[in-house]
Amino acid sequence: MSGFLVLLAQAALYSIVMGAIFLKRKTIGIGVFFCLLGTMHFLETYLAAVFFIELPFGLISPGSTVLFAGKLAFFLLLYIKEDAEAMRQPIYGLLSGNILTIALALILRFYSEPANLPGYNPDLRFIDQMGLLMIWGTTLLFADLVILVIVYERLGALLTKTITGRIFISLAVVLSFDQLLFFAGLHILAAVPTLAFYGGWIAKIGAAGFFSLMLAAYLRFLERDGSHAPAQGMADIFDRLTYRHRYEKLAEQIGRDALTGLQDRGRFDVAGPAMLQAAFQTDLSVSLMMIDIDHFKAINDRHGHVEGDHAIRAVAATIAAAKREGDQLFRYGGEEFALLCPQTPPGAMVLAERVRAAVAKSAATGLAQPVTISIGIATFPADARDFPGLLLKADAALYEAKTLGRNRVVSSSGAGSRPVSGHHQGEPNSPI
């Protein structure tokens, strides 16, 4: 069989098997696909260093031309059909495995007299050589994948509207970049001749064309839905190829109420004392408004809990729209909300009345009768000098507002909209 047919047969077999496993990832798990990539990593590096086929335009390695180009193509397919986070995971596994390979080989050197078996000669230097090449190759692979996604999303989309063209441009650019740098490692560690550089580059461009056609056929005939990944910004791509994206997403979700999206009781318990401490140090005031939806049990009983949840979300959105930019709104629990308002006096009553009126006028709840709220206000340091005391006073004012007939605002000071000075006689204790 000619060298060209050998390479073509390998590329075809690689595409068919890898494509079949990838197609079944939803049923057998994406880990099977990752293991398949890892299994061929050593063979890919070994063939790239020692096995070459001579073609008219130079020396060609099946490991570099077929296995690596194919791996890069299926990483791109992984990005297109999944996301950059899934694309990132195998890289760290491969790099960790390469480092472990070298470490385990180093430990074996402490045993200086391995058993002599006919025809078998352990060569730890060869393992070191392959390990270093695999580490270098995997490190390059990380850079390759970042460039691959950027080119696919930006340059490829700019130059062509076809999925085949975008894949080919992406693979051709990255394979050219990798050929230049990985060959340097091959030349230094394995003394691969320069003739393999030019022949390998030409062959990789041909491999880019072959795998582009195979991936396009896969996307067209096997997985058509969602085959075109939405374009992303460069910063998004770099974030998603690291752990920062997942951390920030998780950090944002922690402390959020699932129903309303507001900050939850846990964040309220942290933010309240912190805000009072800041106000104490700057000799300013903080007002706490405890807000309760009136007759909420009747809403649930008459319309059901689904409509009750809808009412809670609508009220939360209305309060959020009516508050000031620097105020912090929390879902305290059930149908109750807490609003922390720095530097409010003498406008605390005015702000509370604006919030109350906005809810009363809102039709966002979708219910036949209007939904109203009652509000109790307490202000630091006039009404209380620590956070538990402020919460107690605001709760008492809320209870009074409901006792007086609901749909109203009551201040703990009983002074209505009278200004509450941020200056006070004497030095209060720290609010924490």
Give a structural overview:
The chain has 432 residues and is α+β, with helices and mostly antiparallel strands. The chain contains 16 helices and 7 strands. Strands 4-5-3-6-7 form a 5-stranded mixed sheet, with helices on both faces. It has a two-stranded antiparallel ribbon with strand order 1-2. A hairpin with a 2-residue loop joins β1 (53-55) and β2 (58-60). The longest helix has 36 residues, at 124-159. The protein starts with a helix and ends in a 21-residue tail after the last strand. Mean pLDDT is 85; it is low at 415-430.
Please give the number of β-strands: 7
The biggest beta sheet, please? 5 strands, mixed
Radius of gyration: 33 Å
The fraction of residues assigned to DSSP E strands is 5-15%
If helices are DSSP runs of H or I spanning 4 or more residues, what is the number of helices?
16
Q: What does the overall shape look like?
A: elongated
Give the arrangement of secondary structure elements.
Blueprint: H1 3-23, H2 25-28, H3 30-39, H4 41-50, E1 53-55, E2 58-60, H5 62-81, H6 84-108, H7 124-159, H8 163-190, H9 195-221, H10 234-240, H11 244-253, H12 265-282, E3 286-293, H13 296-303, H14 305-322, E4 328-333, E5 336-342, H15 348-361, E6 373-380, H16 387-403, E7 409-411
Parallel strand pairs: 6-7
Antiparallel strand pairs: 1-2, 3-5, 3-6, 4-5
Helix pairs in contact: 1-5, 4-5, 4-7, 5-6, 5-7, 5-9, 6-7, 7-8, 8-9, 13-14, 14-15
